[in-house]
Amino acid sequence: MDCLREIEGKQAHDPIFIEKMNKFSSSSSSSPCLCVPGPLIVGAGPSGLATAACLKEKGVPSIVLERSNCIASLWQLKTYDRLRLHLPKQFCELPLMGFPSDFPTYPTKQQFVDYLEAYAMKFDIKPRFNETISRAEYDATLGFWRVRSVGVKGKEMEYVCRWLVVATGENAEAVVPQMEGIGEFGGDIRHTSLFKSGEEFRGKRVLVVGCGNSGMEVCLDLCNHNARPSLVVRDTVHVLPREMLGRSTFGLSMWLLKWLPIRLVDRFLLIVSWLMLGDTARFGLDRPRLGPLELKNLSGKTPVLDVGTLAKIKSGDIKVCPSIKRLKRHAVEFVNGKTEKFDAIILATGYKSNVPSWLKEREMFSEKDGYPRRPFPNGWKGECGLYAVGFTKRGLLGTSMDAKRIAEDIERYWKEEAKHRLAFTHSLLQQSSSP
Ligand SMILES: Cc1cc2nc3c(=O)[nH]c(=O)nc-3n(C[C@H](O)[C@H](O)[C@H](O)COP(=O)(O)OP(=O)(O)OC[C@H]3O[C@@H](n4cnc5c(N)ncnc54)[C@H](O)[C@@H]3O)c2cc1C
Ligand SMILES: NC(=O)c1ccc[n+]([C@@H]2O[C@H](COP(=O)([O-])OP(=O)(O)OC[C@H]3O[C@@H](n4cnc5c(N)ncnc54)[C@H](OP(=O)(O)O)[C@@H]3O)[C@@H](O)[C@H]2O)c1
């Protein structure tokens, strides 16, 4: 069998591990195979890096696999130029290393990427790039996960590990909606993950579909580059100012939640928003029946933190439109019967998890949406050494909480096994030294 075996760290001398691996080697398929003594982490975004760092700090080595050619590929390759963190930096830092003190409250995308690069360097995390996980399955006979990856030029590889950490993110794939006439439209149609700047749309009529944080910011960027954006709003949406009463809206909400019930905090947020922004329904942005925090808790739907888009909607620089009925050659027909001409369409329709496409497991992860079935804060751990980091719908704050818990949990098993290994080696030594 063409099986390349690399056993690293302490387990290189672990007789139990070696015996199991020998059994595995003789039953494995023809692709090269790497036996990983510690956890295998899929994804080198903030979640994968945070978990690898927390494990490292506890003396547990791990391997990180990443489908693209860099860390934090979502941030480096799939976000627009004007992006900044929406939440103040103290809510976005990863465990064990804060942001540099000279960074602004809301770091730019490049500053965040620089921080992550420095983080990976500090904890000596060197992901194996250009490896897309195509399949991972638990082998109950062996008691190990078998993880298959596809590299450049289709080169396949198999990893065998005791612990598998899923860190592929809530935003692994772009959501592209079905729209009648999509093949007919003559202009550019692209998802926000491919939008960099409004510069290339200067002077053009652009329809932005979706009013989450991406759609709102892309509209603002288009305005700032003298394009003519319209925004499709198909449902209700909470728009809140990014800051209120001199503090970040997020920070203030977290603080108030320590003392007040969620409904009262929501009431407070809505009153202050109304005072600062006015009645958003007047501009075509009806608010949901539930308050912003309650809605976030129940459905995961993030409120929009306004960074100037609302003013452009009020001034008429951004037009609000209802749902799309169908696309035509150079125009869009809306459900209210109106038809308008557009040169380009930008889909700000969000993202989805890709876990069901590669993880052959249905207990922990839902096949429907690719998220852990158990809600926050209990979704991080499954059976048989399976973990999830970064699926809390709570951004980087959720990532940090998951990463710390996972590292603590794996450390316990790792130390227990180290004790067994030591005892086993001792008894072997005693046997060999006795006459
Ligand atoms: C435009 C935008 C702005 C955001 N701003 C904020 C913010 O300000 N604050 C905040 O807290 N959150 C923000 N988020 C949420 C964002 O999800 C988190 O900030 C963060 O990126 C999550 O990290 P992650 O590692 O879980 O996922 P990701 O950053 O998506 O990383 C997952 C990694 O897994 C890799 N991967 C996926 N599938 C496979 C596979 N099959 N095999 C191998 N590798 C794979 C991907 O290539 C990727 O590198 C934002 C999201 C977007 C889209
Ligand atoms: N600066 C920042 O920090 C920043 C910037 C951008 C994004 N983000 C974060 O990144 C994540 C993704 O944000 P996102 O804005 O890309 O996605 P999102 O929050 O999922 O929003 C997608 C939007 O598209 C709408 N939509 C989906 N399909 C549609 C269709 N067929 N027709 C019309 N509308 C449709 C949705 O409407 P419904 O609500 O009706 O489904 C929703 O308004 C979020 O966590 C967000 O907070 C952060």
Task: Tell me about this structure.
- This protein is of the alpha/beta class and 435 residues long.
- It folds into 2 domains: 2-172 and 353-433, FAD/NAD(P)-binding domain, CATH 3.50.50.60; 175-350, FAD/NAD(P)-binding domain (3-Layer(bba) Sandwich).
- It has helices spanning 15-27, 46-57, 73-77, 109-122, 213-224, 249-257, 262-277, 292-299, 309-314, 355-358, 395-433, and strands spanning 33-36, 40-42, 63-65, 132-139, 144-150, 156-161, 164-166, 173-174, 188-191, 205-209, 228-232, 239-241, 243-244, 247-248, 304-306, 319-321, 324-327, 331-334, 339-341, 344-347, 351-352, 386-388.
- The strands form 7 sheets. A 5-stranded parallel β-sheet has the order 9-20-10-11-16, with helices on one face. The protein has a 4-stranded mixed β-sheet with strand order 1-6-5-4, with no helix packed on it.
- Strand 10 (205-209), helix 5 (213-224) and strand 11 (228-232) form a beta-alpha-beta unit.
- Helix 6 (249-257) packs antiparallel against helix 7 (262-277).
- The longest helix has 39 residues, at 395-433.
- The model is unreliable at 1-10 (pLDDT under 50).
- Residues 83-86, 177, 192, 209-215, 217, 232, 234-235, 302, 323, 348-351 line the site of NADP nicotinamide-adenine-dinucleotide phosphate (NAP).
- The site of flavin-adenine dinucleotide (FAD) has 35 residues, from helix 2, helix 3, strand 4 and helix 11.
- It catalyses: indole-3-pyruvate + NADPH + O2 + H(+) = (indol-3-yl)acetate + CO2 + NADP(+) + H2O.
- It comes from Durio zibethinus (Durian).
- One of its GO terms (biological process) is auxin biosynthetic process.
- Its EC number is 1.-.-.-.
